[in-house]
Amino acid sequence: TIVSSSASGLTFLVILTSTSRLMCYYNSKAQNRPNVGKFSVSDIDPDKCTHLIFAFSDIIENQLVPTTVNDVQQYFKFNALKQRNPLLKTLLAVGGEKFGTEKFKTMAGSQENRQLFIQSVIKLLRAFNFDGLDVDWRYPAEEDKQRFTELCKLETAFVDEGTSSNQERLILAASVSAEKSTIDASYEVEEIAMHLDFINVLTFDFHGPWENVTAHHSPLFQGSQDTGDAIYSNTASALEYWRDQGAPEEKLNMGLGAFGRAFSLSSNSSAVGAPASGPGEEGCYTGEDGFWASYETCLYLDGVQNHLISDQKVPYATTENQWVGFDDTTSISTKINYLKANKFGGAFVWSLDLDDFRGEFCNQGKCPFVSQLHNLLVPGKSITKICAFL
Ligand SMILES: *[C@@H]1O[C@H](CO)[C@@H](O)[C@H](O)[C@H]1NC(C)=O
Ligand SMILES: *[C@@H]1O[C@H](CO)[C@@H](O)[C@H](O)[C@H]1NC(C)=O
């Protein structure tokens, strides 16, 4: 990007390097975790990500509202992080995995409800100094396809508000399915891509201990054992499918999960595709069966060797009867190299609180997962050169 401006007889030519986006989710529920798992807004490093996303807000009577009374205090602290990094942008996410779809269906189902919603969105975002909204409707059903498109068209209200208030326009992003069958059924890709600034493709949780054989939850590429629709269940296929259906690659963000999905093995076999009897043990801080934060993965795999799944370019490890697929420094580099080679706009990570944010578990310093992404995607200072001409 080249920006030139002229002020008081001096012309400044500012050359900005093309930086990629790194959008990082903050899960507000992480402040309720025990001991060193507890993560709150004050644990966020404002310099690691280009965008921070506060997860999640709620919808009541078709209006956007904070999920808890306590969130309001956090909104202030969250947006105050911009004082420490003036380039940082913040978004408020609505919905999420456990949110269900009813409230979205109702809200997006009529012009009147959508109007009420968008007015409440603008009011809430501006009141707390957020820069945009991230829609986490997981997932619109086939019958909601038009509703989702109508919701994305609310971007025009952001344009009008930006113009009339003479402020930078609010950002509209959505986090969307990476499953081919859901993309086909639920999104008018070309249409929604015109209205959305960013599209976060949820390229993780393709597989998990809800299935009966081991598989990596976020492979980069197709595996040799994949058959049928499973050939689409990988990061590269999902991003390329969104692009080929009409979403510009610069709007697409690759999803990275700072966690592993663990299975309990039910036989001696520990290969990819080995029989599993259900989820692995729960993470002792995050407390969900078969879900290990990246720092919990370090804790449980101390001294255990990783195995690379050579076609899918991601690692797994086994310890006792546990099988876990996760991302390590090598697979993160491979994924980001792929992202850059294909000119996708950026990446997003779920979530900051799952990284080894205290640097106590992985022996790689503080926030190794997000720091590596930052180093690969947001190199150096964004202003590389300032030339002044008389
Ligand atoms: C596991 O392997 C051991 C030794 O290789 C064998 O004796 C045992 O029968 C095997 N168990 C199962 C469940 O296959
Ligand atoms: C897993 O489930 C599928 C379909 O439900 C079944 O065909 C397959 O045999 C099962 N595999 C194992 C290892 O239990």
Automatic annotation (TrEMBL):
GO BP terms, alphabetized: carbohydrate metabolic process
SMART domains: Glyco_18
InterPro entries per the UniProt record, alphabetical: Chitinase_II/V-like_cat, Chitinase_insertion_sf, GH, Glyco_hydro18_cat, Glycosyl_Hydrlase_18
Pfam families recorded: Glyco_hydro_18
Domain GH18: 20-380
Keyword Disulfide bond appears in the UniProt entry: yes
One GO location term (cellular component): extracellular region
Keyword NAD: no
Domain of life: Eukaryota
A GO molecular function held by the record: chitin binding
Record's keyword terms, sorted: Disulfide bond, Signal
Extent of the signal sequence: 1-24
PANTHER family reported in the protein's UniProt record: CHITINASE (PTHR11177)
Protein name: Chitotriosidase-1-like
Source organism per UniProt: Labrus bergylta (ballan wrasse)
Lineage, top ranks: Eukaryota, Metazoa, Chordata, Craniata, Vertebrata
